What does this fold into?
Amino acid sequence: MTSDRDNLDPIEPSTARDLFLEHKATECANSTVRNYRYALKSFVTWCEKEDIDNLNALTGRHLHQFRVWRKNDGDLAPMTLRTQMSGLRVFLQWAGSIEAVPEDLYQKVMIPRVPREERRRTEMLESDRAQEILDYLAKFHYASIKHAVFAVFWETGMRLGAVVSLDVGDVDLEEEVLRLAHRPDQGTTLKNGKRGERPIAIRPQLATLLEDYIENTRSPVTDEYGREPLFTASSTRRHRTSIRRIVYRVTAPCFQGK
It folds into this structure.
């Protein structure tokens, strides 16, 4: 007896992702392709971690395991997780069309539910608009705290508390990663506690930006615990309200004189 998997063509997850992105590049804006690349980055990493070297082997159980792993892996906002799982669903639907996975596998991707109010708040900032803001910051406010904060939020999808918790020492420029650490006894915490601790890969462009920010813009502050916060005010670590205010300011049309 044959199954729907008998007619599948073997393909590595990373190869399938690259083919998918090439396909999307022919019909989508560059910003959309970037979003898909970001959404699938963790999926390919998870496949490598689980020794899944052939996309044909994927099952609904694997998709559930990935979703749980991604949720517990770090301080992702609910809307970020929803967006990434939606991107995976589109990818698997395409993979079904080239006989890399069963055609109906994409239907087994469970998309996290997010309250409508939170969805509206998140969806107000579209990819093209975010890139426009980044381009403006790079031209007129390069390596400022506004530029660095917004770039970190946009590229990593971190929660506010995780961004506030970053120290200079958490920025590994050589490895191009940000290292999240739960330090409740030193004034900063991660939503998922110790489970939220992890390295987050960043692109070379963001690493260069953070290097320039640290060397030229950051106020040389040491907090009461002897830590060197990444994002500082004149004499202390930036608080949540201050970081949130920065994001509100740069995303307001009037910031660019509109």
In short: The chain has ten helices and three strands. The first helix runs from residue 13 to 25.
